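Standup notes, protein team

Yesterday: finished cleaning the Erythroxylum novogranatense set.
Today: adenylate dimethylallyltransferase (ADP/ATP-dependent) structure.
Blockers: none.

Input for adenylate dimethylallyltransferase (ADP/ATP-dependent):
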Amino acid sequence: MEVSVHSLPARNNWKTGSPFQFCFANSRTPRKVDVTVRSQAKKDKVLFVMGATGTGKSKLSVELADYFPVEIINSDKIQVYKGLNIVTNKVSEEELLKVTHHLISFQEPDTDFPVQDFCHHANVALNHIASKGCLPIIVGGSNNYIKELVEGSSSNFKSNFDSCFLWMDVALPVLCKRLASRIDEMVEAGFVDEIRGIFDPAADYSRGIRRAIGVPEMDQYLRAEMAMADDTTKKALLETAIAKSKENTYKLVTSQLGKIKHLMDDMGWKMHRIDATVVHEKSGEEAAYAWRKEVLRPTLAIVKEFR
């Protein structure tokens, strides 16, 4: 199905005359979808937006709310925790207001959130969203969580849901260059201050939000600050911490891509690959045009057919 770059479907056109028009209705409004779907024992549908960190998964998912009645379920195992919005690169307050998000910023920072907990909360959210006639979008880079949700031995996911998997992909050299720039931008936006705000010399970096890339890497620098080290020492330690954060982000990307390949090659998952490389090679209006042409247009066609 072709969708012209210059004539994308009208935004929010699902709100009028659509079978999903009661998605966001209040409790006094009749809901037309539930009875029909359930009575026919029809499977509900779930859209997954997968890919390595920094490829544009969240941006795409939020933009889909302009064209379809959707709610988003976060599947990033670090973004479930409260705090560190810059460090963990969470969606903005504006984006949270635009489309309902589940499983984001709700877990206490120093607690564990094992895959079993994710599956439980995700299933609750899925059933809630589907009961309103909306399309759930599961978004995030924690592929182990997604695999367990879909394939877990105690899961009845496949019996209840039809799935569509989108894979946001960017050529590795291009993505790594973009991620390096993004970390520099995060530092300018308050990355160090956020981590300083939760710094505890006795903290356990293997639990909770302190596993986030950037937090363990900043440890030596923040210890030097507490010890009143000289500026030269602190500057060198900060540069090392930022460099390690970039290096560990590249390693994360490699791991994420390996797991996606496993899901396709070994588990037989059929994924729609969306190549966003050209978007990250450009800037300004050229990048915006490339996004509409290479990412948004094919995604809209895929989702429209899936629904």
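Follow-up from PR in the comments: The longest strand covers residues 161-169.
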